[in-house]
Design brief:
Blueprint: E1 7-13, H1 20-28, E2 35-41, H2 48-52, E3 60-63, H3 69-79, E4 84-87, E5 93-94, H4 98-108, E6 114-122, E7 131-132, H5 133-136, E8 145-147, H6 150-157, E9 165-168, H7 185-193, E10 199-210, H8 224-242, H9 249-272, H10 276-289, H11 293-304
Parallel strand pairs: 1-2, 1-4, 2-3, 6-10
Antiparallel strand pairs: 4-9, 5-10, 6-7, 6-9, 8-10
């Protein structure tokens, strides 16, 4: 059909020569014909560029200095030509009707800005079973649905994964990935998109996600610094959403509860690694969001503990600030 929209598929990659071809093939085998595949190599030092050579007639390949996955995805968005944008990580694959399924739903429901499909998740080194993402997260809807307040679904179930979404490109001029985040950057992206319009949520799993617990090229293996950064990122991005004046009361209440939990967890990590003054600040902020016995106990312990307070390492930023880590 002449009026079929062009779909841009963006695959960021970094040192995944051993998996990227499998990802590319899963896109080439899609039932939707009108598509462009954009590979953004984020400074790989392995033989990624070499093994992609046979596919250069079928994909656009761009290599840049290592800047992180957010910058790589943004580069793909910048050079894309499609009406709709979709993303695939270079170690995951799509089922062959994934694009067709999403495009048809977005055409039939033009009010939706984003389509989100379910996924099958494989963590072979910690669980022998492949699990259904929506079921594992407790989302038990028996039907596909249009969610007009997707923020509530996102906050409650944390369903969204970049590999599972398709977005109208016109929205991404104002909602790209924030390059300040190298951890949880996808959640920040979805939190902001959840305030921009309805989502179509499909129960059908059309993505196969493979995640090893330990992978030197994947953020699933985090050192101490990365763990602290990741927890601070969660706090900052939720504070940014909390500052939105258009939130409903129940949405704001959920965000405050989540912030209280994140701040308490951040405080625990800071305390564990000897940053007592910073943990004190995090516990206090947790109590301000939602009164809870655990941070109160920790604060009392800190007040009476004769351990000298350390110099501030990472004080949690205020509302609206970007992460400085």
């Amino acid at each position: 059909m002449k009026d079929e929209p062009l779909i841009s598929v963006i695959i960021p990659t970094y040192n995944r020569a051993h998996t990227v071809i499998k990802a590319i093939k899963s896109v080439l085998e899609q039932s939707w014909i009108k598509k462009e595949i954009i590979i953004v190599d984020d400074g790989s030092t392995d033989n990624t560029e070499e093994i992609i050579q046979p596919y250069l007639s079928k994909v656009k390949y761009v290599k840049q200095q290592n800047q992180g996955v957010s910058a790589a995805r943004n580069k793909g968005i910048e050079i894309s030509s499609g009406e709709y944008i979709t993303f695939l990580d270079s170690d995951d694959i799509w089922l062959e009707t994934k694009i067709e399924h999403q495009v048809n739903d977005l055409i039939n429901y033009p009010e939706c800005i984003l389509h989100l499909t379910n996924a099958l998740v494989d963590r072979p080194n910690i669980n022998a079973n492949i699990f259904n993402l929506f079921e594992q997260r407790g989302f038990k809807s028996k039907e596909n649905l249009i969610e007009y307040r997707p923020l509530q679904i996102l906050l409650k179930y944390d369903l969204a994964m970049v590999q599972c979404c398709m977005v109208k490109k016109k929205l991404l001029s104002e909602c790209k990935f924030d390059t300040n985040y190298r951890i949880h950057e996808d959640l920040d992206f979805f939190l902001r998109l959840s305030l921009m319009g309805p989502w179509y949520i499909s129960r059908k799993p059309l993505v196969h996600i493979c995640r090893y617990l330990v992978d030197s090229n994947n953020l699933s293996s985090l050192n101490r610094t990365d763990t602290l950064k990741g927890k601070k990122n969660l706090i900052v991005m939720h504070e940014n959403i909390e500052s939105n004046l258009n939130l409903k009361n129940n949405e704001r209440k959920i965000i405050r509860k989540k912030l209280s939990v994140y701040l308490r967890s951040y405080g625990n990590s800071l305390y564990k690694h000897g940053y007592f003054n910073d943990s004190h600040i995090a516990y206090f902020k947790s109590l301000k969001k939602t009164l809870h016995i655990k941070p109160l106990i920790f604060l009392i312990i800190l007040l009476f503990k004769k351990t000298p307070l350390q110099k501030n390492l990472w004080v949690v930023s205020g509302k609206g600030n970007s992460p400085s880590l």
